[in-house]
User: Fold this.
Amino acid sequence: MSTFQNFNMNKIALQIVFCILLFAACRQEEPTTPKHNLPVVQAESTYTVVKEEDIIFAEGLAHDELSASPFAIPLKLDVYLPDNNAENRPVFMFIHGGGFTGGIKHKPEIVDMANYYASRGWVFVSIDYRTTEELGTIEGMTPGELVSYYKGMAPQEWIENALAGAASSDQVKQATAMYLAQRDAKAALRWIVANATSYSINKDFITVGGASAGSITTIALGISNQEDFRDEISISEDPTLSTANINETYDVKSMVYFWGSNIKLDVYEGVYNLEQYDRYDSNDPELFMAHGTAEDPVTPYEEALEIQSVYDSLGVYNKLATILLPNGNPAGHGAWNGVLDGKNLSELTFDFLVERQNLNVE
Assistant:
């Protein structure tokens, strides 16, 4: 059983519909947004890309190996911009993977994707977030000591749920990091909205995507309510909230999911005794998924089928690209070189976003 799955306490598996096509979409009308005044993007790499690195979007509480009390650290992102004079740009925020234990916003594959999109007219934002690396040392702590140690960082009920479902202190930290990652990703998106004018971003064309843990965080960001993973901890408990643009709101138009799962929403619903899939509804963002069928104990292909089944039941447009390796074998976890019909991940997602967001393409 995967580490992610260890935390999934009350999950009820949906019946898988075996006749789902390998590259499927629920039946829905074509996008009808009028083409005038919509962002213009380029079919080919056209613009020089300008990169702004290590912008602080908020602060968050953290521990190091020696700290007894949490302290504030800066949270950073990179912005990739097309060197043009456009005043109406779509934005794509990407969340790296790493199992909530690490990972970097400048992973080479993410940088390649950022340049692909920015050179075609998008603002592409790659974010960092807190992981287990910011959660200190907890070996030997009692439950009460652990709740106190993470006070202001994660809710008591989340910690208690982690303790109930984890087999080791590392897994407790990983479950806690799942909450922190979500809190940080939402803060990053609120920063983008708050700074939209500075980057000529059209806030009606927000895409959020990620890979692995980043994909898990993407799903939870796009589907959960805006107050989820934000209001469980007050600003008096976590003063860094004052840096996190908490009065901003956002509307995610599209989500991009690479080899992820629904685990974080499952945990959230378990912690707060919600009905399964309570957070899904017919107004959720449209979804593109790329997932291979090779055996994967961390984020199995069945997770993509399950999410697709939920989307189909709600009538929300989605596509599942069952990707292959370049040699034709089934792709597995982390298949950044995955392809379908000769197109790579950037090309597949480009086609989806252009079509579903009805963007003007030159």
About this structure: Confidence is low (pLDDT under 50) at residues 1-29. The longest strand covers residues 49-62. The chain has one domain: 3-361.
